[in-house]
Amino acid sequence: MNDQTQSVNPPQRALTLHRELTAVWSDLPGWRGVLASVNHGTIGLRFMATACVFFAIGGVLSMLIRAQLATPRGAFLDTAVYNQIFTMHGSIMMFLFAIPMLEGLALWLLPKILGARDMAFPRLSALGYWCYLFGGTIILLSLLGGVAPDGGWFMYTPLSDKTHTPGINADVWLLGITFVEISAVAAAVEITVTILRCRSADMPLTRMPLMGWYMLGTSVMMLVGFPPLILGSILLELERAFDWPFFDVTRGGDPLLWQHLFWLFGHPEVYIIFLPAAGALSTIIPVLSRTTILGYGTIVAAVLGLVFLSFGLWVHHMFTVGIPHMALAFFSAASALVAVPTAVQVFAWIGTIWKGRPELKLPMLYVLGFFLTFVMGGLTGVMLAIVPFNWQAHDTAFVTAHLHYVLIGGFVFPMLAALTYWMPLICGRARVPRVGEAAFWLILIGFHGTFFIMHLTGLLGMPRRIDVYPDNPEWIIPNLVSSIFSMVMAMGFALFAFDIVMQVIFGAHSRRNPWRAPTLDWAMSLPAPAYNFASLPGPGLDHADAAVALARGTGWLPGAPRGWRETLVVNAGSGRPEHVAVLPDNTMLPIATAAVIGSFFMLMLAGLYWLTPLALVAIVLTLWRWGAVMGADTDHAPILVAKGQSLPVHWQVRGTLAYGGAVATLVADSSLYACLLFGVGFLSVVAPAWPAPESGLSGLWSAMLIGVALVALTLGALFARRAEARRGSAIAQTQTRLGVVSGVIALVALVSIALLLDDPTRHARDALRGVLLGFAVVHMGIATLLAARSHADARDGRISAQRRGAVPVWRLWQDFALATTAISGLLVAAQEVL
Amino acid sequence: MRWAMGMLAGPTLWAVLFVVVYALHGIGCAWGWPSVSFGPTSLHIAAMMGAWVAGLVLHLVLLWQMPKGHDREGRLQRAGAWIGLVASGVTLLPIVVTSSCG
Prior knowledge:
The complex is a heterodimer of chains A (834) and B (102). Chain A is an all-alpha fold and 834 residues long. Among the domains of chain A are: 589-622; 691-833, Up-down Bundle (Four Helix Bundle (Hemerythrin (Met), subunit A)). Chain A has helices spanning 14-25, 30-36, 40-69, 79-114, 122-144, 169-197, 210-242, 255-288, 296-309, 325-337, 339-355, 362-385, 387-393, 397-427, 435-459, 476-506, 547-551, 589-605, 612-628, 657-686, 700-725, 731-756, 764-795, 807-833; strands at residues 565-570, 577-583, 639-642, 645-647. In chain A, α14 runs antiparallel to α15 and α21 packs antiparallel against α22. The model of chain A is unreliable at 1-5 (pLDDT under 50). Chain B contains 3 helices and 2 strands. The N and C termini of chain B lie far apart (45 Å).
């Protein structure tokens, strides 16, 4: 293909463009650069490096577990410490390694492989990282302080309630993990919008690299799947801190509600972890097999099937809790069915290898390790999906073996393949030969030696999470074998880390595109520059061979002539370029915001609840600052992106990235609200101590107040529409002012209802009403803040005939607050009437 | 993006149907529907069966409505419709093979 014939801009001097872009896109020098970077390359690598550190810590904890279990009367750890160690091992590996690792890979890779200069929301990337680091550090420090969570990584009630866990151990988990979850939801919003809107010019969704589809599936699952855990954590923390009885059977609660909420997150979580790994496999296998992927469309359909079906399996973690047979059978059938789309992908990868000429390079070794391990884990998964077998194997070491085959096979092996594959792009250096191969064999042999025999240990009846087994001599040999091989695996991981360090320090400079891959991530110099592409890819320039042409500025939007961080925003479906987004520069705002959010969590953890409003005010002030530095108070002429084609800048269009981000956030929010409604329905129908006692909320006052709130909310929605429709005139400012006033009235009405609520510690119904009201107040508060932001925009000239300021996002939130408040009001009214 | 909506329609219908039937199952068990007769079966089975069959009919209508073209968008839409139909058929089959609240 002749790149020149596809050029949309005249060639320039590559070095000049490189200097111009580097000046705009680079991190600040020194410590300010560390704290203020928002670049996806830096943040993505930080995520991955920090996740690897947590992986090492989680790995050391697992070594302690294996040392304890190597003999039947292990005196290495006492029971209390052992409980903390296994809880922290699971929690760290799930929440502080796997999810951040996939987030890091997505942040670092997606703009490169899709042909963009950065993620859609660079400051959100940085905020996510700091929340992850601070939350993870809190959890880790608790281990050093001897107050780490000790109730198992799924923190079941009633073990985790205040009676059975009176210290702060469970609070550390609930607050720390929720803090980290903010990072995950932020990443999910960002990944979703980036994939849909920040691809190269004219790259339709149906032609984007498979990695994009896998990450899109992952991010949507995170948007829907994480809120149940966030809600569960909020409810359990409310019960622990204020005695609101969501899980207390004597007062209308039910511990099974926690299990439902946890596994509504927990099972999709397995696929959330697997899909990015599968994306890496779908990228690496065809390249190292010197062919193209077999069955692109079939794989996309399989991803679609996995994304949906994985939300219909959660009860298979609860097969032994006494649920009726028919419900068990629904989830058993779904659990068996989900193996089909997984198998479709495995066969597509095998077929790709079969039709190509596979090269047994190091990443391919890890791919083969994946096949061996994951397929076995998948088969034991089908066994566990069958209810009678599940009853026999439940809570035994068989399940421990199965989950490690799935998670290490389905995530760790592919991630090791991905790291070895993309390391030249990360550090610009080639691998030091042979060390990596030795590490691979140690990991593979060590893993199977540890966990294969653990199936047998489980079938011999050994339960999970016990620290001694003096009366079961039949478990001694298999445990000893597992412990010995676990040390072999640990040596393998240590050698892998050593190999990576060797590559970074001593590796020879890598040539460009060392794997001869076709994808855009290799259409750049090594190591990848901060701006990725000197000019952006498009038709004819959408492959790795276009590297030189793109570096010479013959693609879209060459250089940084305005001194701005610019990237193309395209139509979600067709990829047609729509506008130019000007992305934010380096800033300390993300770390400051993470710090104030962290202060809220720390105050909660310390039990200083009366001080938390101060932290909330600080959060609001910091977030206000985010909005204050967005937008513009003057119109800008369209930007020439290609010969004869100009596009508007983002503040002069409606369908901005920010608007897409708000929609994605509301998807997550809707999931949380739906789970709250599920909680109300579940307890009403299933919990034993119902019906609830007489309610004091049935009077005229409460009906009047909810009426006032709904009218004010409706008027606010009307004002938001009129503010946008009349944005070119002075009326807009009046509408935004009225929007603030109506928001305050709605807030006052809603807060007044709180005075009429029954004591939320009395019964779960009253506690749930408190949460429904809290949900309404928080969302009304956000809508009012957005109205105030819109008013400030109107006052400061950020709104004009072409510029909308924050009004579209305000309108969206106002509608959402109105809809959810109305539903909550109807629900409470129905409870009163029925 | 209409094709994407079409692709999501089948699995979304399965999700809705799964939630509705699971909710009917829980409500029916709590309110004693298995002991209420409804023709040849119980009110509980009849309610779930009614929702299931109605859902399957909707799935078939959806499949019928899908574009017949051989482009990737068309194939993905048909795949989505089939995924929804098979998922609804398989995961809710227990309505006719197991006891409801035992």
